[in-house]
Specification:
By secondary structure, this protein is of the alpha/beta class. Helix content is 37%, strand content 9%. A hairpin with a 2-residue loop joins strand 5 and strand 6. The longest helix has 22 residues. Bound molecules: zinc ion. Zinc ion binds next to strand 3, helix 5 and helix 6. The site of zinc ion has 7 residues, from strand 3, helix 5 and helix 6.
Length: 308
């Protein structure tokens, strides 16, 4: 995967809080996180958080978004000066993420406009350790997530390393694109009102699983259009996506399925009654559906009788 060296980046879509506060200071509200938490569901905050790997490390007490100003100031100045063009995205990890966020939102902006709707551009916030959000406090152990209450994607970028070290996935910018596009898929669901359809929150055919698989499918839809979606500067940010990139993303999807996580990072037993995100095979299937069709309408996991 390669970015167009000359395309412009828009750092206004990313908020950097890593420079202040340090690893989650003052996050008294954090509960139930820490090593080995995978496989244990953060039931309390189930509904408000939709993240990539599971609902872990999330506290149940919603905090107001006054986190900004209490040790988590946004200072995106360094990003703004470092990440100007696709060339920066090709060479600097932070800028890669900026470019991916731009690309994903560029696609949805166009797609919404084509269907007579208005897409709302929302930020991705970088944090380290822990973060206060409109949905409560969360630690990095939760993995990246989207908070509907403040319409923000949150990510501790160390997750990308963890995908490789803990989950054994291959890394790479397109894998990061899959992760971010999945989270923005939840934002799309929020804008479309899909989240309100979630009534059953656990189990192999639960609404939660359908919501997550649809976010995977939406990620694939973005991938289908990524090289043809013009962003702010009028040209596509992404020049090419290789078969190897797609294979890497499918590999990542296969390592964050509920069955894989339960088997390898949890109790060792697969218990489908606790599924929240779908199996590895299902996640691969719906991501592939998105990539192959490029059509969000084909991501109707709520209407599907067979999830795969
Ligand atoms: Zn999710």
């Amino acid at each position: 995967m390669e970015f167009d060296d000359n395309a412009q980046l828009d750092t206004s879509q990313v908020e950097d809080t890593r420079g202040y506060g340090g690893g989650g200071m003052g996050l008294g509200g954090l509960v139930g996180w820490g090593g080995g938490g995978l496989g244990i569901l953060g039931l309390i905050a189930y509904f408000v958080f939709t993240n990539l790997v599971g609902h872990h490390g999330v506290s149940g007490s919603p905090l107001s978004l006054d986190g900004v100003g209490s040790g988590q100031q946004v200072d995106s100045g360094q990003l703004a000066s470092e990440c100007r063009t696709g060339k920066d995205a090709n060479t600097k990890p932070d800028c890669t993420v900026v470019a991916l966020v731009n690309s994903v939102q560029g696609y949805w902006k166009d797609q919404f406009a084509r269907s007579g709707r208005t897409y709302k551009v929302v930020p991705t916030r970088f944090f380290r350790g822990g973060v206060r959000t409109g949905c409560g406090g969360a630690s990095s152990a939760a993995g990246p997530f989207y908070c509907p209450a403040d319409q923000t994607v949150y990510i501790d970028l160390s997750f990308f390393k963890e995908l490789q070290t803990k989950f054994g996935a291959q890394g790479g910018p397109f894998v990061e694109g899959y992760v971010l596009a999945h989270e923005y898929g939840h934002h799309v669901q929020n804008l479309l009102g899909t989240e309100s359809r979630v009534r059953t929150r656990q189990g192999p055919t639960s609404d939660s699983v359908r919501l997550e698989l649809q976010a995977d499918c939406y990620a694939g839809v973005w991938a289908n259009h990524a090289t043809s979606t013009p962003t702010a500067s009028g040209q596509p940010l992404i020049r090419n996506i290789s078969q190897q990139d797609i294979a890497s993303a499918l590999d990542a999807a296969s390592r964050i399925g509920d069955d894989f996580i339960q088997r390898n990072l949890g109790s060792g037993q697969v218990n489908s009654s606790q599924f929240t995100h779908g199996t590895s095979a299902q996640r691969e299937k719906w991501f592939t559906t998105g990539i192959q069709t490029g059509d969000p309408a084909r991501c109707d996991t709520f209407g599907a009788t067979n999830l795969g």
